[in-house]
Amino acid sequence: MDYAPEPYADDNIFAKILREEIPAFRVYEDAETLVFMDIMPRVDGHMLVIPKTPCRNMLDASADQLAACLKTVQKVSLALLGAPYGADGISLQQFNEPAGGQEVYHLHFHILPRRDGDALRPPRQQGDMEAIAAEAERIRAAIAAAA
Ligand code: 5GP
Known about the structure:
Layout: H1 13-18, E1 26-29, E2 33-37, E3 47-51, H2 63-80, E4 89-93, E5 109-114, H3 129-146
Antiparallel strand pairs: 1-2, 2-3, 3-5, 4-5
Helix pairs in contact: 2-3
Bound molecules: guanosine-5'-monophosphate.
Guanosine-5'-monophosphate (5GP) binds at residues 13, 24, 36-40, 95, 101-104, 108.
């Protein structure tokens, strides 16, 4: 194997969110992972799941980091299906390295709650912050209801 990843750089946006240097709409966390809203949502409710410990992406992540993230992905996804949140399905996205579509170099999984017949919005379009805040509140409530 000759893949040699760039070293992890702790000045990336998600590391700053973890250190609370920049704000985020946080919806869930446990000892190992944090979930917050994507501010350029491809669908309403677009979230990001990250490990609290550093790694660049799926390729240099430990088995424990991957397991913790996917456990949280499943937990949050299940809370959004059906009432009260009302998602009909979940799309999961995860990108690695520039050619793979990665733009922020701290491992993350995109959770996209889907509604029957919906369509993804184009990428890189700033969302409406009030709408994202309201969506975050609905998601927090759904996660609490499922607990
Ligand atoms: P990637 O292409 O690396 O998988 O996706 C990075 C994601 O981070 C994109 O969906 C983008 O909208 C999101 N993003 C970029 N900057 C910020 C930010 O400052 N805050 C939040 N919450 N999301 C961001």
